[in-house]
């Protein structure tokens, strides 16, 4: 039997309400380890909350965590929303997690990734009133991401997911009720948080087994607590030289024998026309322009994200 748990500290003085998530994907343990270290600091008195509230969810998806797999029944970080009639375990998680997120102002979600590469963070869109992801807290997210201790930031997630879903729906009309064909497929923890009026950052702390990844997560939590003035500590100096990228396309794996041309790492540069991989049919997959490859996943399931393409982000020019 699986159960859900969060730990909340509240201060007598008003302030922001921060929530920190670990193990949204069960095989990504760095967030759980980082949160455990911060909780130990609170219990020992090394950290003390002086304003606002902070909640920690060390294991967001307990079924996936117990299995040491990315998902329990499906990807929790896709199509995240309350479900009136839960069908999969992640629906039960969503029914518990979504109200918890809505009760906070700011989210820091800690993840790791499959391929080798350096830590990076993702943020939401620029301020806008468009129907896909209207937003008014872009400046706050930019300020927060600059203080996490990483040197690279990426945006464009939800728009890229939406384009990918449209492509899937055009070729898989017989599977219209599939999760990965839902127009809300791109909504994960951060997107849901923004839809409830808050703001949110996902921090990819490093490769799954990188022993430094929990340290990246720990530093980010403490820096965020200081930046939001929840603890009495100086606001960390912002990184004014961050590399900014914008995702613009997702490429799915179409067959189990689709193969990469080499062992790509996230943010390896690409030159226009460069061979990225080869389809099972023998068709080459080439870079359509100069840019970067993001989240290459050689073991991706058929019909899911194989890799992403990114360009330079004008927000960080």
Q: Can you tag this structure with a few keywords?
A:
317 residues; alpha/beta; Aminopeptidase; eleven-stranded mixed β-sheet; 7 helices; 25% helix; 23% strand
Could you state the order of secondary-structure elements as H and E?
A: EEHEHHEEHEHHEHEEEEEEE
Q: By helix and strand content, what is the structural category?
A: alpha/beta
By CATH, the topology of the largest domain is Aminopeptidase
Low-confidence stretches: none
**CATH architecture name of the largest domain:** 3-Layer(aba) Sandwich
Secondary structure: number of strands: 14
Please state the CA-atom Rg, rounded to the nearest Å: 19 Å
Oligomer: single chain
Tally of helical segments: 7
Distance between the termini: 50 Å
Sketch the major β-sheet. 11 strands, mixed
Which strand order spans the largest sheet, edge to edge or round the barrel?
1-3-2-4-7-5-6-8-14-13-10
Can you describe what's shown?
The chain has about 325 residues and is of the alpha/beta class. The mean pLDDT is about 95. About 45% of the residues are buried. The chain folds into 2 domains: about 5-240, Zn peptidases (Aminopeptidase); about 245-315, RNA polymerase II/Efflux pump adaptor protein, barrel-sandwich hybrid domain (OB fold (Dihydrolipoamide Acetyltransferase, E2P)). The chain is built from 7 helices and 14 strands. The strands form 2 sheets. It has an 11-stranded mixed sheet with strand order 1-3-2-4-7-5-6-8-14-13-10, with helices on both faces. It has a 3-stranded antiparallel sheet with strand order 9-11-12, with no helix packed on it. Helix 1 (about 30-45) packs across helix 7 (about 215-225). The chain has helices at about 30-45, 60-65, 90-100, 140-145, 155-170, 190-195, 215-225, and strands at about 5-10, 15-20, 55, 105-115, 120, 150-155, 200-205, 245-250, 260, 270, 275-280, 285, 290-295, 305-310.
